[in-house]
Amino acid sequence: MYRTFQKSACTLAIALSISTISSCSATPETAEDWQQQGIIQTQRGNLDQALESFDQAVLLEADNATTLVNRGASARRAR
Fold first, then answer.
1. Model-level pTM?
2. What is the pLDDT of residues 53-78, one digit of tens each?
3. What is the largest CA-CA distance in the chain?
């Protein structure tokens, strides 16, 4: 039973990894896509690129408070 659980967990981890890699390589189109790109870039420490992604998200959806907060947090870290 434990071995079956391990196999299932590994299969799930691989599927999630493939999904994440696929979504990262796609060109962002929506404000949500740009925001996710900004979050990923922030986590990687690429703060200038993160700010550019958040700026694109704001251009598409200026009233999204989450994007504005994430952009502000990245800008603060970039100082």
1. 0.66
2. 999 999 999 999 999 999 999 999 99
3. 51
